[in-house]
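Sequence design from tokenized structure. All designs in this work follow the same two-part layout: the structure record, then the generated sequence. An example of the structure record is given first.
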């Protein structure tokens, strides 16, 4: 079974996806980390973020893999070309670069193929921005998870402080979230939008447990149909 969780930046997709995967015994695929890894590699190599051809070459040639901690089905490490980029891809610099990288069809095509191959080998919770519309259009469960701009900015701010990376200025984080929403929703390749058959979940006033419970209920309903 594939559980597709889409939504804008800061909606809580990563936290919720990991919790759902643990509760159901699924694996978790963080597609956002894959795009972030391409952005990190491109910046390290001095590749312009507007250079679609070179970015496509990186996406096709550089293997992205995930490391696991024994006993935990969720990936704890992210690698590109064998380099551990787990922390490096969560910086404010990558926050600002990843949308431009993900907008290129050459990059999306290369990574979607890799994501589909991974998803074909088991039960996965997959989160991103076009999972239910482009990557796994036949996913058994589709959720579009969102929250107000202000709530998403507060969550991202707390996350950055906890991790010790990224901006800790509320106004800057809020501005970045709004800018990324505009970019992701208006890009030509797989724009951010709910799948027609997705369940919409606004988590602005919901706890993580409430959101996770709702998604697990949807999965269990599909499992018995």
């Amino acid at each position: 079974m594939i559980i597709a969780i889409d939504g804008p930046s800061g909606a809580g997709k990563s936290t919720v996806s990991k919790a759902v995967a643990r509760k159901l015994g699924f694996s978790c695929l963080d597609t956002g980390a894959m795009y972030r890894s391409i952005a990190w590699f491109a910046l390290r190599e001095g590749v312009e973020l507007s250079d679609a051809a070179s970015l496509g070459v990186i996406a096709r040639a550089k293997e992205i893999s995930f490391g696991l901690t024994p006993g935990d089905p969720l990936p704890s490490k992210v690698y590109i070309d064998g380099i551990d980029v787990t922390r490096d891809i969560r910086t404010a610099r990558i926050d600002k670069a990843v949308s431009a990288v993900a907008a290129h069809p050459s990059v999306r095509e290369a990574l979607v193929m890799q994501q589909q191959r991974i998803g074909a080998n088991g039960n996965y919770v997959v989160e991103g921005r076009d999972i239910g519309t482009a990557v796994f259009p036949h996913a058994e469960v589709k959720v579009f998870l969102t929250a107000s701009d202000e709530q998403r900015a507060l969550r991202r701010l707390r996350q950055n402080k906890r991790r010790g990376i990224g901006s800790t200025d509320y106004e800057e984080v809020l501005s970045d979230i709004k800018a990324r929403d505009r970019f992701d929703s208006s890009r030509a390749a797989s724009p951010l939008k709910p799948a027609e058959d997705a369940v919409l979940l606004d988590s602005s006033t919901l706890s993580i447990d409430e959101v996770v419970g709702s998604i697990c209920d949807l999965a269990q309903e599909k499992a018995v149909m």
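Strands lie at 2-6, 27-30, 64-68, 75-80, 83-84, 124-128, 141-146, 199-202. We note this feature because it recurs in several other targets discussed in the main text.
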